[in-house]
Design a protein that fits this description.
It is a single chain. This protein has 335 residues and is of the alpha/beta class. It is 41% helix and 21% strand. It is built from eleven helices and nine strands. Strands 2-3-1-4-5-6 form a six-stranded mixed beta sheet, sandwiched between helices. A three-stranded mixed beta sheet has the order 7-8-9. Helix 8 (228-243) crosses helix 10 (289-306). The longest helix has 26 residues, at 2-27. The chain is globular.
Length: 335
């Protein structure tokens, strides 16, 4: 593959050089000049596009994004509705850019926050060049009729990824392949395990073949659309999801008020918002032990993420019923 790439590149630059000599001979000018033809070839040798990852809650969307990016961009837990926002992961090669979009899981919205999460999903169904539709093979519930209907109607390629295949057998897998082929006939079906990186190595070459020729949409040094504070908020929220049970994790929002670097240390002040005074007490814990544990675990993750020493201060405040309040949701970034 590498040799054919270099041959193609050599031939291409020979063609550019030939056009340059033609210009020199024609006008008698001693200069190197690209023609419109050559410029068009430069632009369209590059492929780029948007690949949106969709599926039900806990199907493995964020795990797959992290696997494909080679870096942890999206938080991952066993709890449903871990992902609340739409997150772009920008994968770059010299001649390729894939803008992955991780989305919240499809659900029946019961309150304002979930409605905003579903808005992110609906947006993602309108702007993709390719869809990665992830299905959890262990999920025995009824599949999402909403997603199936949308993916059948949208004139865009669909790679249907049967995830967690390490938790099924060959007979069960073959049955699922047939069922999903009947539901979405145009989809190409691939069995994978995002967590164990089984078959995930074939996804990028598949996407390369499906994406259009295009210049990059983002700077090649950029790997996400989110600012640093977003990842701080998510790291803290992930530790809350992992350390608390019942309704507490779902009642929490995190806002970083200070993110300042000084002498190689990043100083961070973040506020954990809850909906009830009783929840505030649970988050803090006996003698502050619970919130101290969250802070320590989040700090260690953030030090790995930013490759710098972190000084993290956490505060807890009550914002009553924020999940149902449109103004609060807007202020928290759920637009």
């Amino acid at each position: 593959m590498e040799s054919s790439k270099s041959i193609a590149s050599t031939d291409f630059f020979k063609r550019i050089k030939l056009f340059s000599f033609l210009k020199t001979d024609l006008y008698g000018e001693d200069q190197f000049c690209f023609t419109n033809f050559a410029v068009r070839n430069i632009i369209y040798m590059h492929k780029a596009g948007f690949v949106n990852i969709v599926g039900k809650p806990n199907a493995g969307k964020s795990t797959l994004l992290n696997q494909l990016m080679g870096e942890k961009l999206a938080i991952v837990t066993q709890k449903a509705q871990t992902t609340r926002h739409r997150i772009f992961g920008i994968y770059n090669e010299e001649d390729l850019q894939i803008v992955f979009s991780d989305t919240p899981g499809v659900l029946d919205a019961k309150y304002g926050l979930q409605e905003k999460m579903m808005d992110f999903v609906k947006d993602s169904l309108q702007d993709a060049d390719v869809f990665l539709f992830i299905v959890d093979v262990t999920d025995k519930a009824e599949p999402s009729g909403f997603l199936i209907d949308k993916l059948n109607k949208i004139p865009v390629p669909v790679l249907l990824l049967l995830n967690k295949v390490d938790q099924t057998n060959q007979e069960g897998l073959e049955k699922l392949v047939e069922e999903w082929h009947n539901r979405i006939p145009k989809a190409e079906i691939l069995p994978i395990s995002a967590l164990n990186a089984f078959n995930t190595d074939i996804i990028l070459p598949k996407l390369r073949s499906l994406l259009p020729e295009s210049p990059p949409y983002y700077d090649k040094e950029q790997y996400t659309d989110k600012p640093e504070r977003f990842f701080v908020n998510e790291a803290i929220r992930e530790k809350i999801l992992l350390n608390y049970e019942k309704e507490i994790p779902y009642s929490v929002e995190v806002v970083t008020e200070q993110f300042k670097e000084k002498e190689g240390i990043i100083f961070i002040d973040s506020i954990i918002y809850v909906e009830r005074d009783t929840q505030k007490g649970i988050i803090i814990g006996h003698k502050g032990e619970a919130i101290k544990k969250v802070g320590t675990e989040a700090r260690l993750d953030l030090e790995r993420f930013f490759s710098k020493k972190i000084h993290l201060n956490l505060f807890v405040k009550v914002k009553k019923d924020w999940r149902k309040n449109d103004r609060d949701l807007k202020n928290f970034g759920y637009r």
